[in-house]
Structures are given as structure tokens and as C-alpha cells.
């Protein structure tokens, strides 16, 4: 028999569990929050704190049979999809730096040189790691992590728990992914195009001087040119990465309805 003072504890615990779903799903898919180095306990605490405040701002009643029912499972699934969509929209813009880094690394001949990315735990080229660090600093500098939390809270007003995301949101997310893929190629275009010109010059030298050891001369020349171009083009690439991050934050705001 449950004591009278604890009669509503179970229902409150179920509400807290539901409140954690959308922010938790968003943090799993979003950069910085979803990093492998971020403890799971910290993500749970943040999800609970944000979800409790957001869920209290909208009227909501649990299904009559609780979350362990068909209606409850559908409700949780809708919350997971909403959270993943918000976090993934920001991750798409963040990934433009990885695309640019891999393109530049392959043009420099550093495609074989990989290191473990602390955010994803996957192996990425060193140039991609360099640009991802820049993207992380820029996202923190523009308060992108705080804006993500703000948009998650705002999404409860436009999309209360139990409502499905509109079908047009997934199409817009897919189109946005294509645009960010093109943005990554644009970020890498100046450095990559110049490196291709350097390789063309090396090819002309190999044709005019067949005795020249192309691997002994071409590889250091390409690496040196790539490092110089990265140093010269870092401000321009940083501005382009900032623009892609702003576009991804705008997409998150659009999906949240805020």
C-alpha cells in the first residue's frame, strides 16, 4: 500500500522521465553535448533540468495507461524524433568543417594521416581535426550551445509532447544537408584549387625532366604549399564556417517553431 503522501510520486517520476527524452535525444545528435568525452551523467542532469522547465510551460497529461502502453510508446517515439531532428540540424552545419578538412587533406596528400576525433571518437584526417576545433571554438563563441537549449525549450510551445513533427520538416532537413555539403566544398575550394595547380606544375616538371624524382620533390612541395595556404586562408575559412554554423542554428530555430 502506498502512503498518502507518496501517492503522486510515480506519476511525477514518469513525467520527469518523459521530460528528459527530447533534450536528451537532441544532445546525443548535437555537437559538443554529444561528444564522447562528455559524461553521460552530465547529459542526463542537463536533460532533466531543461526538460522539467520546458514541460511545465505547456499543459500536458500522461496517457491513461501510462508510458508502458501503445500510446505511451508512440509519445516517446515522437519526442525522440523531435529531439534528434533539432540536434542533427546543428550537427549538419558543424560537419561542413569535416568535409572541408577531408577534401584539403586528400589534396595535400595527408589522407592517410588520421587522428581520433574527441567529439565523435572516430578517425579523421588531421586537417579535418584542425577545422573541427575551429568550428567548436566558433560555435561556443557565438553561444551556439545556449541557443540550442533555448530552441529546445521553445519547441515545446510550437510542438507540445504528443504531436508529430510536420512532414515538411524532414524534407527541409534533407535539403539543408545538401546545402551544407556544398558549403563544405566551398570552404575547401580556394586551398584545394591552389593545390591542384601545384600538382599540375609538378606534373609539367616531371614531363620536362624525366630523371626528376617526383615523389621526393612533389610531396614536400605540396605539403609546404598546403600549410602556407591554410595559414593564409584561415580567416576566410573561419568566416565561412561561422556562416554555416549560423545557418544551422537558423534551421534549428525553424524546426523548433521559435
Written account of the structure:
The chain is mainly α and 258 residues long. The chain has helices at 9-29, 40-55, 70-108, 126-141, 144-158, 167-208, 214-256; strands at residues 114-116, 123-125. The protein has 7 helices and 2 strands; from the N terminus they run αααββαααα. It has a two-stranded antiparallel sheet with strand order 1-2. The longest helix has 43 residues, at 214-256.
Which features characterize this protein?
single chain; 258 residues; mainly alpha; two-stranded antiparallel sheet; 7 helices; 2 strands; 2% strand; elongated
Silhouette: elongated
Query: What is the strand content?
Result: under 5%
Largest sheet: 2 strands, antiparallel
Helix fraction bin: over 70%
Side-by-side strand order of the widest sheet: 1-2
The averaged pLDDT comes out at: 80
Q: What sequence of helices (H) and strands (E) makes up the elements?
A: HHHEEHHHH
Low-confidence stretches: none
| Total discrete domains | 1
Query: What's the number of extended β-strand segments?
Result: 2
Secondary structure class reads mainly alpha
Number of alpha- plus pi-helical segments: 7
Alpha carbon gyration radius: 24 Å
SSE map:
Elements: H1 9-29, H2 40-55, H3 70-108, E1 114-116, E2 123-125, H4 126-141, H5 144-158, H6 167-208, H7 214-256
Helix pairs in contact: 1-2, 1-3, 2-5, 3-4, 3-6, 3-7, 4-7, 5-7, 6-7
Short note summarizing the structure:
Helices cover 74% and strands 2% of the residues.
